[in-house]
Amino acid sequence: MPRVRAPLFGFSARGTLANSLTYSRRKGVHLVGLVPFHLDSKTLSQYYQRWRFQDAAFIWHTLTTAERAPYIADASTFRISPWSAWLRSYLRDQTYLMAEHRLDSFPGGISIDTSSWAQNGGVTNATIAQGIIDQCGDFNGINAEIEITHAANLLPTDAFTLACFVNLDGAPNAWAHIADKGNTYRLLFDDAGNVYASIFRTIGEVAGWNERIALTPGAWYHVAYTYDGNLVAANLKTFINGVYIGATTGAGVFAQPATTMRIGSAFNAGNPYSGLIDQYRLYSRVLSPSHIAALAARMFL
Fold first, then answer.
1. Which residues contact 293 (CB under 8 A, 6 or more apart)?
2. Are residues 79 and 129 in the same domain?
3. Integer Cα distance of 141 and 25 in angstroms
4. What is the domain extent for residue 86?
5. What is the CATH number of the domain that holds 238?
6. In the prediction, which pLDDT does 42 show?
């Protein structure tokens, strides 16, 4: 047998047998030895790519038979697994991701929507501060906000998830809004400083009034809310730091007004929020409790 002068599957393996098994040499160049991995596997871009893979894996396990059907058909056509067909689609289109504002920079006064919709927002008086992952948006509680023009992708039909990280500067202003898509969905504080969410259906509002919870200033929290208008009960669910808090009943479909969405204030620019916001995301489906727990724990890091 030909002699192998390094571990058989090591990146520096040499010799006839090693080359034939690892495909490490082509035209005299040891390819595997040159480019096996990035030197730093924890760059910011790789964090976000792992986040994409994490989303894809969790959502795949919640797809119904009907939702999986097109990926099963693609798998047969391209001779790949249904999971591979779904992953390819999700990484390309970010299926079910309605908006993603990382809030880690505001180039030219713009908040970049890194979802496939690219629905960017105009920044007014918000600045950049240290976030929970990288940088984040800092809102002054007076006149700082991000305005995002109405678009169809910001309007869910009968299911959605809203999630972000927040860190209060101090006791919140009464009725301060973290985010608001006027008369569709909003995330805010009541007059006693408790955070909650509400959604607007065609037949009226559903507010998570019984799931309100106080947040301690100076601490990071992951807040997430899901709504499934097809359920008979427990439609609007509240999760804080990945932990299920409770639910409010109210079936129905979302109202569809052509209103502005704002981050850091109400949709009419009132009720400003004071503090930090990071990784603001909207999905057009209900994320599973385990998926939300993974987002809160930042398992992709």
1. 239, 242, 243
2. no
3. 60
4. 44-91
5. 2.60.120.200
6. 72
Burial class for 102, CB neighbours closer than 10 Å (0-12, 13-18, 19+): buried
**pLDDT value of position 19:** 43
Residue 72, both tokens: 């099963």
Structural domains of the chain, count: 3
| Prediction pTM value | 0.85
Q: Is the pLDDT of residue 18 over 60?
A: no
CA distance 112 to 102: 7
Q: Which two tokens stand for residue 280?
A: 């603001």
The answer on 278 and 130 residing in a single domain is yes
For 172-195, what is each residue's pLDDT tens digit?
889 999 999 999 999 999 999 999
Are 171 and 65 contained in the same domain? Answer: no
> Are 243 and 210 within one domain?
yes
Compute the distance between CA of residue 191 and CA of residue 176 in angstroms, rounded to an integer.
9
